[in-house]
Amino acid sequence: MKLLYLLRHAKSPQSIDVPTDMDRPLNERGYGDIQRIAKKVAAEKVRIDSIVSSPAIRAFSTALILARAIKYAEDRIVLNKRLFDSSAGDYIEVITSSEDSVNSLLIAGHNPAISDALNRLSRGEITEMPTSSLACLTFDTDSWQRIDKLPSEIKFFFHPDGIK
To answer: Residue 60's CB: how many other CB atoms inside 10 A?
Structure first.
């Protein structure tokens, strides 16, 4: 059994004076939203074997807040450039190339690619991920290599508006 967690980065300001889009930080609402999600995830006793994040500040910050909540070592978060300014196909390639020794994998990234990947992997059951949302899919397999060809089950879908 493989568990895949897809985490869309928290809210960040659209217009801010930073050198590149990669450097946009979270805004106040983003911090609050992801902290609520992280608290919920910790309460559910979620355990994750591997976290892979886009290197963009807003995605990495989102992953970091969640990692701290579940006591995942911050220095084990892997940054992968393929998760920034990319497609659902890129996300699925990152997932399917994961080590099979990893049973629970979290990918932190951006729209539209992360929503598109979730839509493909959930067979259209979830089509859009709001900022700070977290989806968990399960796959009845021992290998990540073919999960895009296998049926999935949605274990949960958390979004900040649904959590107090």
So the answer is: 20
3-class SS letters over 95-128: HHCCCCCCCEEEEEECCCHHHHHHHHHCCCCCCC
Give the residue numbers spanning the domain of 96. Answer: 2-162
List the CATH number of the domain containing 48. 3.40.50.1240
Pairing of strands 78-79, 50-53: parallel
How does pLDDT run across 106-154, given as a tens digit for each residue? 999 999 999 999 999 999 898 899 999 999 999 999 999 999 999 999 9
pTM score: 0.97
Residues 105 and 124: their CA atoms lie apart, in Å, by: 21
45: left (phi over 0), alpha (psi -120 to 50) or beta: left
